[in-house]
Amino acid sequence: MTNKYNIAKMGIPVIGSWDVIVVGGGPAGCTAAASAAREGAKTLLIEATGCLGGMGTSGLIPAWCPFSDKQKIVYKGMAEKVFSAAKEGMAHVAKEATEWVPIDAERLKRVYDDLLKDSGAEVLFNTFFCGVDASDDGVVSGIVVANKSGLLAYRAKVYVDCSGDADLAAWAGADFVKGNDNGEMQPVTLCFVLSNVDDYAYRHGPNLHGGNKNSPIYQIVASGKYPRIKDTHLCQNIVGPGTVGFNAGHLWDVDNTDPKTVSKAMMEGRKLAMEFRDSLAEYHPKAFANAHLVATAPLIGTRETRRIIGDYVLTIEDYIARRSFPDEVCRNSYFVDVHTAKKEIKQAKKGTEFFEKRCRHYNPGESHGIPYRCFTPKKLRNVLVAGRSISTDRLVQGSTRVMPVCLAMGEAAGMAASFASKSKSHDVHKVDVKLLRKRLKEEGGYIE
Predict the structure, then answer these.
(1) Which whole-number Å values give the CA distances from 295 to 87, 234, 245, 268, 298, in the listed order?
(2) Among candidates 336, 403, 415, 400, which has minimal Cα distance to 369?
(3) What pTM was estimated for this model as a whole?
(4) Residue 135 to residue 70: CA distance in whole angstroms
(5) 149, 150, 155, 156 alpha-carbon torsion, rounded to 10°
(6) Which residues share a beta bridge with 35?
(7) Per-residue model confidence as pLDDT tens for the chain (448 residues)
(8) I need a labelling partner for 243 at 20 to 30 A (CA). Which of 227, 279, 370, 443 fits?
């Protein structure tokens, strides 16, 4: 008896050819596709869910990481446009706010829809990337996707992998690393939303964040009544009237490239969200006594998986030195944010001092560059990677994984993909970086 199915005569139709195909419609994928299309490339964006935005929409992340270096906005160009459009209509958010600004997920979906529609890029929702055809010399000639039309093949001159897990690059043969030396990765979080919260009591009550030693989270953890709440990770923001979004709790031993672990985490995360609702109702009743768990995210909050090996590996030494590069295509000022390892749970229960000590924060006005070479997998000729899977060491990935910098990286990668698609070789390693930087500046990108 064979342990494989041989499906005879399974011809996969080739639907069309494109200049650029972007896989993954998170922040990096959205700006990559819009940027490539803006530069004149016939562009297709493939997204597995029913909306764009990734963690800011399907993931229910309740706030943007900071967009500024505490003096000026660092993530400009398309990133700033998305950020500004997402803030409009949120009455409780100051127009000039740049730090931990709340996200209205439904509004953000429409912002991304408009960005792609206005750019001229085509979007395919509910379509899973599931295979790649690559030659031994690193040229990808086509990809296979699955949707309600069945298995379909698409071809492009250049591909941009914004899957978050470097799926396309890894399956095409790119070298990559994953996690720490033992393969352990940062814990995941299933975000959720509570409604029917008393706004006044929430605003005037204790700061719930674990950085506040008077937060009820310390009583909740110490009580032992809610065993799924294992540490004091409790980020939250008002995302609408009487509505609070939570990025709270951790789930360990989850690998987003292993569906079994993700499936288990989704089930556990939904129970964990209910424990947060019940525990807050008990320990902060003025605000949460009548709170309703209205939604848990359909997308797990994954902080790390694969990191490609590119032409340059950005290191923690580069971060500490605030290094600039001749081929940098964006700047980054977010702190090194590596979440609690399983072995650190006991320390995490006591407070945030251990976490803050290992986080490396910049002073106002400081940032580092991200080189274009971090987007180019060594072994692949016509593939770029943007988003949290770019070529970095693990500590720096804790900084470059967040949404603002992903937006900036995506715009640069999409523009580069368009340039490569117009060349004879379609070689992303041979893109004219001087021209790329010039065009990014012309479009308002901040490069210094």
Answers:
(1) 22, 17, 9, 15, 9
(2) 400
(3) 0.95
(4) 47
(5) 60
(6) none
(7) 456 655 555 689 999 899 999 999 999 999 999 999 999 999 999 999 999 999 999 999 999 999 999 999 999 999 999 999 999 989 899 999 999 999 999 999 999 999 999 999 999 999 999 999 999 999 999 999 999 999 999 999 999 999 999 999 999 999 999 998 888 999 999 999 999 999 999 999 999 999 898 999 999 999 999 999 999 999 999 999 999 999 999 999 999 999 999 999 999 999 999 999 999 999 999 999 999 999 999 999 999 999 999 999 999 999 999 999 999 999 999 999 998 888 877 766 666 655 566 677 899 999 999 999 999 999 999 999 999 999 999 999 999 999 999 999 999 999 999 999 999 999 999 999 999 999 999 999 988 7
(8) 227
Which structure tokens are listed for 15? 């639907």
> Three-class SS string for the chain?
CCCCCCCCCCCCCEEEEEEEEEECCCHHHHHHHHHHHHCCCCEEEECCCCCCCHHHCCCCCCECCCCECCCCECCCCHHHHHHHHHHCCCCCCCCCCCCCCECCHHHHHHHHHHHHHHHCCEEECCCEEEEEEECCCCCEEEEEEEECCEEEEEEEEEEEECCCCCHHHHHCCCCEEECCCCCCCCCEECCEEEECCCHHHHHHCCCCCCCCCCCHHHHHHHHCCCCCCCCCCEEEEEEECCEEEEEECCECCCCCCCHHHHHHHHHHHHHHHHHHHHHHHHHCHHHHCCCEEEEECCCCECCCCEEECECCCECHHHHHCCCCCCCEEEEECCCCCCCCCHHHHHHHHHCCHHHHHHCCCCCCCCCEEEEHHHHCECCCCCEEECCCCCCECHHHHHHHCCHHHHHHHHHHHHHHHHHHHCCCCCCHHHCCHHHHHHHHHHCCCCCC
Place of tokens 């001229």: 120
- AA letter at 206: P
Instruction: Provide the 10 A C-beta neighbour count for residue 51.
Output: 21
